[in-house]
Amino acid sequence: MGVSEDKAAIRKAAFRARKAAFDLDAGGASGLLSSVLAGYRGVPLSGYMPIRSEIDPLPAMAEAAAHGPVGVPVIRAEGQPLVFSRWTPDAEMTEGPFGARVPAVEELMEPEIVIVPLVAFTRSGARLGYGGGFYDRTLDILRARRATLAIGFAYGAQEVPDMPIEPTDQPLDMIVTDAEVIEV
Length: 184
Fold this sequence. Notes:
Layout: H1 3-24, H2 29-37, E1 45-46, H3 58-65, E2 70-74, E3 83-87, E4 93-95, E5 101-103, E6 108-109, E7 113-116, E8 120-121, E9 127-128, H4 134-145, E10 149-153, E11 174-176, E12 181-183
């Protein structure tokens, strides 16, 4: 099997594990994320609007928004990096690409912390997403400008022992799960 096939197999199993964890979610994971973000009050950050069975960062994002700018990713086009639009808990939202909601009024911002959704992760900071490369391209650009902290947010059930890494894959600096904070 090649890297693409290996990643596809991992992705398929991880989607099942994520869905099972989502079905059992009692909503407490955001507290761990909030405690991590408390150490970065006022630093511009981006979260995400959860889709399907993704773990929900919105309570932590709302708490962070009381202390500084919070954005959400906006997909402009396939093969392009993400941009980030300012978000507040009461922002009017509209349907964006791939089913993720985006602010109806766009106000671009640049985060220094990016909360990254994922399908699977390793303890060493490898991340498997949906396969579009949006976060990899975006983190590469942001990290070329300044130190940018990438925090993976996931259920512990999404952890895998190993996965193939490609040169374009951007590592996570930390993973926050429903049970622990993993420093990479």
